[in-house]
Please model this.
Amino acid sequence: MKQIEDNRDLTFARARYSFNDVREWKSHWRKDAAKRVKGLPVAIRSQGLMVVIATLMREDTPYSRHIVDCLAQWILKEAQHSPLLSSENKEPSGRQLLDACMNALRADYVAAEMEAILFLDQVKLYADALYSTEGKSS
Model:
């Protein structure tokens, strides 16, 4: 019973954290961010979390930096029971998440990868709901 409760708490925390982040996206890049985040869960499944992190870091746009830093914040600091959770990261970055993935045990990396997919699926859902119709007339 405790595990079911923990899963619900994590699901709710993930949804709340992702919604609050998406709601605060900057107006000048949020439509681009919404488009970019749509393919990330599939990209993680096909290419792996480390490749996606490195790709976002290489893109070096305001929204790609924000997405990767938000993901790092979630996995390294906020997600309950995350195998890569670290108390020493006050403001985790994409680089720190990449380092943590590189040094993680295989099982921990796979768990972090799954958490990243679940998190980005939530981000995608809220970004689509909040910004897909922005700028369209009724």
In short: Helices lie at 2-23, 30-38, 40-47, 49-59, 62-78, 94-103, 106-131.
